[in-house]
Amino acid sequence: MSNQKRHQNDQYTNSPILPGEHLASIEEFESGKNTYVDNGSIRSTTVGKKVYDFRTRVVRIDQSNSPILPKIGDILVGYVEMLFGSMLSIRILFINDKKSSSGFSAITSARVSGGGWGRDRGDRRGGKIIFRVGDIIKGRVVSLLNSTIHIVIDEKEFGVLYTICFNCGGDTVRVNNNTIKCIECGVYEDRKLTHDYGKDTLLLIHKIGNN
Ligand SMILES: [Zn+2]
Fold first, then answer.
1. Are residues 33 and 81 in the same domain?
2. How far is the CA of 159 from the centre of ligand 1 (A)?
3. How far is the CA of 209 from the centre of ligand 1 (A)?
4. Its pTM surpasses 0.70
5. Which residue from 30, 22, 4 is spatially nearest to 147, judged by alpha carbons?
6. What is the pLDDT of residues 176-198, one digit of tens each?
């Protein structure tokens, strides 16, 4: 019998539960709303918040304010929260121009090709594609395999939408195809940029997404 949830004192958990996810064993709880029992394990039928009722010993999934899981083809905007190997993890802020507080993250390859940017293009400055934690990224969902949201950022409308200067935290502007410059300290850096890179684009997304 699984007792991994025994120590759980919080009634709510913060991260969204995905369909099929294990919630408790039938020895610990009874199966409540939006759950089913599979082989002694109570699992979720939907995306939502896990709620343990310790009085009635029922576990259920609450769908109120339940986050919407992105679909293939959706356009996501988020920030780089982690770099691991040649992958980026991106915390989603907006899905199709609508604010998302789901807490979902997407992953994408930091090896970007096509769109006039790639290994075959050669880089005369000797630089390479850089991503940093905090970069605002726009991309398109291409796969939801294994409950992981995969996005691509190769196309010209995708990539880094805005970032502040890594050196001084100043505002940056695009100076050519895939280079940004800090207007405070003058430092240059190469990024895979969206065609509409800039602070104004980010502010516009915020304005539309919060309405
Ligand atoms: Zn700077």
1. no
2. 21
3. 28
4. no
5. 22
6. 888 999 999 999 999 999 999 99
